[in-house]
Amino acid sequence: MRTTGNTQGWHRTDTPHGWRELTVTDVVTVTTIGCRGFYEREGPEGRKSVSEDARKEGDMQSRTLGLNASLGDALLGASGAGNLLGVTPRRGLARLRYRLLLGILLVVVGPSILFNITELSTIWSSPFGVNTVLASCAALFIMLVFLRRAETLPGVGVISQVATTAMIAFGTVMTIMFAFRLGYSRGIFFGSFVGGLIFCFMLGLRSRASMGQAFHLIASPATCRLEEVPGIQWIRLSQPELPKDSHAVLIVDLREDFDDEWERLIATAAVKGIPVYHAKQVIESLTGRVEIEHLSENSFGSLIPNHGYNKVKRGIDFILALLALPFIVLIGVVVGIVIKMQSPGPILFRQVRRGYKGEPFTVLKFRTMKEIVVSAEEMRLAAITKTGDPRITRFGAFLRRTRIDELPQVWNILRGEMSWIGPRPEAISLSDWYMGELPFYSYRHIVRPGITGWAQVNQGHVADIDSVYVKLHYDFYYIKYLSVGLDFLIIAKTFKTIFNGFGAK
Questions:
Q1: CA dihedral 206, 494, 484, 297 (to 10 degrees)
Q2: Mean pLDDT of 283-290
Q3: Could you tell me if 67 and 38 are in contact, meaning their C-beta atoms sit under 8 angstroms apart?
Q4: Which of 116, 249, 376, 501 is deepest in the core (most CB within 10 A)?
Q5: What is the dihedral of CA 66, 67, 73, 78, to 10 degrees?
Q6: Model's pTM, two decimal places?
Q7: pLDDT at 494 exceeding the cut of 90
Q8: How much is the pLDDT for 14?
């Protein structure tokens, strides 16, 4: 395909699927050989690649469209490899009901028989026995739902999440049992915990083995980007004919203007029950990011958060913050003494940041840096924490690596200014800078900022514009797919980052 045109004009271009109209905002020359091509723009300085202009001149249009961006390179920058289990047809043990039935037999009934082989009748006649069985079933269900969600999320190793998931699921159920003073058999419950670990580990191995699913592509610029992703079987359709594979999955750019034969193929595939997925959704599944496609295009209709869960989440945030407050106060006493011993200054660091609905609020943290006086002009630079920042104290580095410095923000959660999970709030000076450079940046304020978030566990701490732009994609992904499953996954990955110190500065 090759097309040239004038500024703000309409052009017709020859594609593999017929002629279609397109708009350009500059004198553009596009040369594509097969699916891999290069994109150039002619100007006073001669021909330059669009991506080079975007880097050098901050051309938002080119950066947004990502014409020369490699999806494979994007995945290398993500935390873990992407997966397409979210768009893979579920068969057999991939279905939740079959997993639950088999899990009840192995994880609940098995330990009950093992620990009460001589007195099986007492399991159902004793309140302890009934409580234990119901508690084990509830914990198993939480585990399976969580792992099912984790399978569909990008950059998630399902096997690596099994132990954390089991501890969260069984720990939650045990806390409820303790709170309501319900008796249960510790032996059977522990046996169910071990059985759940083994069962979910085997399911994780099976999920990994099922990733050989082939995906059929209808050629377009968006689907051609997918072919750059290694480790996945991509099959490009050359003719408008249905795949012979009985388990075929069709991936197509639904915004592309195809000719009648290809549109007829897509409709026929849907009628015959062949899964048809939009290429944008698949890219999101691989990267864990929702890309901003065009400055003049309103994509926010698909980014409206789950308002029902958002309200429930606020209640959960408040209850958990209230329960955690006494323990955080005790930790704060010890941390405060050490902070005072290491350097002069207050125990708590206060900073005005932009939060929910764009409203400013004062965030609280344990102070991790030496106090310095900066001028108004230096405020923005002072708000950026660099790797190996000399202002960070020795104890402050420990607090940052373990995220203990964020614990005072439980007060912000109680006040309704923050959540446990959400996009990180930025200092006002940085937020103003980012909003001036990234027009969609303010949309991240549609949800409450959090102590931890999807961007933090995947990307870590960033401050430069290009990295913040990627971070914004992660924030938009969280807003679009806001759910209890995603929040549980972020909690699990947060514990992992606490131990390995990922993203801390």
A1: -100
A2: 80
A3: no
A4: 249
A5: 20
A6: 0.69
A7: no
A8: 43
